[in-house]
Design brief:
This protein is an alpha/beta fold. The chain has 2 domains: about 5-220, 3-Layer(aba) Sandwich (Rossmann fold); about 225-270. The chain is about 35% helix and about 30% strand. The protein is built from 11 helices and 14 strands. Strands 6-7-8-3-9-10 form a 6-stranded mixed β-sheet, with helices on both faces. It is globular, with a radius of gyration of 21 Å. Residues about 285-290 have low confidence and may be disordered.
């Protein structure tokens, strides 16, 4: 299976949301990384066939998804940032309702609802109302509904926003587990969501694709540019004024700074191996990282 994004652009009035995006996807997890407003959601909505591009096209095995229409949508599982749910429905009833909308027979729906509830570890909560679920449970029901039609292409937009670390890890592991024979597109501004599971990472900024590579290859441009340094309290503000300081950790009466700099920021600075948090700051240091 091959999914191709061919020179896709999208504008809203005079504002350009995406500019000339070209990509190719096969099975595996692809992380789409960018700050808020970078064009991630617009890109995901176009690939999910929820929104039409202003120019360019998306192809599945060489065929335009606009021409495939419902045949393409049958292959899609989509989890948007906000999933509309009926709060008085139980988890089981909600999933059965969505299964009916997706055209599953009653027998098929019952079997599939049981399967996805088990997959997202919510079988014991099947009779509980979704309106009383925690944020993590709500996101898991969201991914469950996206999987009801056994999609070949799974598109999830900012799935872990607002979740605690335990739920984020659970969700990340679930996506990794189901990606063996699917294309999984995961958009996020939380680096740790994709660092361990992404086959490739796409970096979007201002609606443009600025990098696309494996996590290891993405880090090469900042090798030798990440430093750690112990300073006293007055040194913290001094180095923050001059350099990109990614992290500050207190160690007894001193502070350890993690600095991104083309040159050695201080004779005592020690070179460190870069990670994707460093990469994010390298590209989005002017953005607010949530």
């Amino acid at each position: 299976m091959n999914l191709t994004v061919d020179r896709v652009s999208k504008s809203f009035g005079n504002k350009s949301a995406l500019t000339d995006i070209s990509l190719e996807f096969t099975t595996g997890v692809y992380g789409i990384l960018g700050a808020n407003g970078s064009g991630k959601t617009t890109f995901m909505r176009i690939v999910a066939s929820v929104m039409k591009p202003s120019s360019g096209k998306v192809l599945l095995n060489g065929q335009d998804i606009a021409a495939l229409d419902h045949q393409y949508r049958e292959l899609i599982g989509y989890l948007p940032q906000q999933v509309g749910m009926y709060p008085n429905f139980t988890a089981e009833k909600f999933l059965s309702y969505i299964a009916a909308l997706k055209g599953l027979s009653r027998t098929e729906a019952q079997a599939k609802v049981n399967e996805v509830l088990e997959l997202v570890k919510l079988s014991d909560h099947r009779k509980e109302k979704v309106g009383k679920f925690s944020g993590g449970m709500t996101r898991r029901i969201g991914i469950a509904q996206a999987l009801l039609n056994d999609p070949q292409i799974l598109i999830v937009d900012e799935p872990t926003a607002g979740l605690d670390p335990k739920e984020r890890i659970r969700f990340r592991n679930l996506l990794s587990q189901i990606s063996a024979d699917r294309i999984v597109l995961l958009s996020t501004h939380i680096v740790s969501d994709i660092e361990l599971i992404a086959k490739e990472i796409l970096v979007l900024k201002g609606g443009r694709l600025i990098r696309k590579d494996t996590p290891r290859e993405l880090l090469k441009p900042i090798e030798g540019k990440v430093w750690s340094l112990l300073v006293d309290e007055t040194g913290v503000s001094t180095f923050q004024a001059k350099y990109r300081v990614e992290a500050i950790a207190r160690i007894r009466d001193q502070f350890q700074l993690r600095i991104i700099s083309e040159t050695k920021p201080h004779p005592d600075a020690v070179n460190e191996d870069p990670n994707l948090e460093d990469l994010y700051l390298h590209y989005f240091d002017e953005e607010v990282v949530v």
